[in-house]
């Protein structure tokens, strides 16, 4: 099939998929309404600023016996330059997230467990083994599957979902390639006659093919479960799986008709030599990079487009911070990017201030919470005194972030001349010198000695104090 024809068909499929997608959305919407987050945190307090920076609303978009996917939506709005949604995928041992493509691009981060991720990368089908700490991108429109081959281990993936190329139908839209009634294949929207002649198979064969898959988008593949084409595919060794797909594409295998639609989507180039020539990126392990900053109170690491090139294409950066109990990240701001954070372990507080110098948010967060901080907004993260505080996240730029610290030994204040600074604060030079030199540590600061944090929080007020 020529490239032009493939493209035309793809365009056609996409158009029609809209219809299917809308139907699917209706059903999804209803399910969503029913499942709208169980934890009764939504109604609490009604503090609008917190709603703004803490992304508490999570929606379960997929739930099957074999796994689930929750999405925390970005709220949109004027101060968000590039909204990212955050997805949480959980897959039971020996399960498969069946082949699909999305209208959004993803960056996967393996939180726990191991995965095999198959992905069509620039016309090549590749499979990558991901383990804990690995990062791997999936471009919008690329067909992919996720396999949890482990026999005893759940797989947890956190991903960024960048909807900038999306159709704006919903948070994001999945198009399932295989499948049947649940999830509905994108092909299901065509009239049977159209497909029958497109595939050159009988209508009955076609109907059978498009109604097999009913277990939902995440399926069990353990031998104990009813065998399906996914089970068969999953049980193969990697080379055999790729080989099998290749043979299917070439029509050497019995089930070729079941698979021939893969080529219809232009997923494989016709040139056999190219098919598995592997130029796709490797994954990147964030735990392997040595911290950009480390002291007695914690460490932080950032991965940008110069460390891992695929991030450049996605315009996204990644970071990981580990604070010891009681420590804090000094107040700082990101001049180049907004930041999304996900608490991986422990608990702490996030303080964000508005540009006009009023407190925007000061709230406790714990494992699984998602927060975001707009570009230019000053903020800090504080670990609770009882445990280390570990958080991971995405930034909306793949350039080196260069956060500007407002407090600490490396703060912006140290770059000004003392007389000007003294004038700006309206105090004597001696006083300002003592003031900004009092903190010897930079970036990650130790806990203030003693004191209960809640009491302290309530009592600190910045008010005009006459200079003595
Ligand atoms: C359709 O299938 C028949 C046999 O089943 C074959 O003779 C015919 O060439 C096929 N047509 C196309 C366009 O592939
Ligand atoms: C974070 O730091 C704590 C100690 O403060 C340590 O136990 C934990 O393993 C660290 N986490 C990572 C991912 O290194
Ligand atoms: C500061 O800015 C925030 C957000 O724009 C606003 O809600 C708040 O009322 C402002 N406060 C003052 C004192 O101007």
From TrEMBL:
Q: Which Pfam families match?
A: Cupin_1 (PF00190)
* Source species, domain of life: Eukaryota
Residue stretches making up the Cupin type-1 domain: 53-207, 284-433
Which key words are in the record?
Signal
Q: Where is the composition biased (Basic and acidic residues)?
A: 26-37
Q: Which SUPFAM superfamilies match?
A: RmlC-like cupins
- Name the segments for region: Disordered: 26-49
**Name of the protein:** Cupin type-1 domain-containing protein
Species of origin reads Hibiscus syriacus
């Amino acid at each position: 099939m020529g490239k032009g024809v493939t493209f035309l068909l793809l365009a056609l499929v996409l158009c029609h998929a809209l219809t299917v997608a809308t139907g699917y959305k209706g059903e999804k919407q209803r399910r969503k309404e029913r499942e709208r987050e169980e934890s009764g945190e939504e109604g609490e307090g009604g503090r609008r600023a917190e709603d703004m920076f803490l992304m508490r609303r999570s929606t379960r978009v997929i739930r099957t016996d074999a796994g689930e996917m929750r999405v925390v939506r970005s709220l949109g709005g004027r101060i968000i330059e590039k909204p990212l949604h955050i997805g949480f995928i959980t897959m039971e041992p020996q399960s498969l997230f069946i082949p699909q493509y999305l209208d959004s691009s993803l960056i996967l981060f393996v939180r726990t467990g191991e995965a095999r991720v198959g992905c069509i990368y620039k016309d090549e089908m590749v499979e990558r083994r991901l383990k804990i700490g690995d990062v791997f991108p999936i471009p919008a429109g690329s067909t992919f599957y996720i396999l949890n081959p482990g026999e005893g281990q759940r797989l947890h993936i956190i991903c960024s979902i960048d909807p900038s190329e999306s159709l704006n139908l919903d948070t994001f839209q999945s198009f399932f390639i295989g499948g049947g009634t649940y999830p509905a294949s994108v092909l299901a929207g065509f009239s049977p006659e159209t497909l029958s002649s497109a595939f050159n198979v009988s209508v009955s064969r076609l109907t059978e093919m498009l109604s097999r898959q009913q277990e939902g988008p995440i399926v069990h593949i353990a031998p104990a479960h009813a065998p399906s084409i996914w089970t068969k595919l999953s049980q193969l060794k990697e080379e055999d799986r790729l080989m099998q797909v290749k043979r299917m594409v070439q029509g050497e295998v019995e089930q070729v008709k079941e698979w021939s639609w893969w080529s219809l989507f232009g997923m494989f180039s016709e040139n056999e030599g190219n098919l598995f020539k592997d130029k796709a990126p490797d994954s990147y392990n964030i735990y392997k990079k040595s911290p950009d900053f480390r002291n007695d109170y914690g460490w932080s690491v950032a991965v940008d487009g110069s460390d891992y090139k695929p991030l450049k294409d996605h315009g996204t950066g990644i970071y990981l911070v580990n604070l010891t109990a009681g420590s804090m990240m000094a107040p700082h701001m990101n001049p180049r990017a907004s930041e999304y954070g996900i608490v991986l372990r422990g608990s702490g507080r996030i303080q964000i201030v508005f540009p006009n110098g009023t407190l925007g948010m000061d709230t406790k967060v714990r494992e699984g919470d998602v927060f975001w901080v707009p570009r230019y907004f000053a903020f800090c993260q504080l670990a609770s005194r009882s445990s280390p505080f570990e958080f991971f996240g995405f930034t909306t730029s793949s350039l080196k972030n260069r956060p500007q610290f407002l407090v600490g030994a490396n703060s912006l204040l140290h770059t000004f001349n003392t007389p000007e600074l003294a004038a700006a604060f309206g105090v004597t030079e001696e006083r300002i010198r003592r003031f900004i030199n009092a903190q010897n540590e930079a970036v990650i600061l130790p806990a203030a000695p003693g004191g209960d944090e809640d009491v302290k929080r309530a009592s600190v007020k910045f008010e005009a104090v006459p200079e003595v």
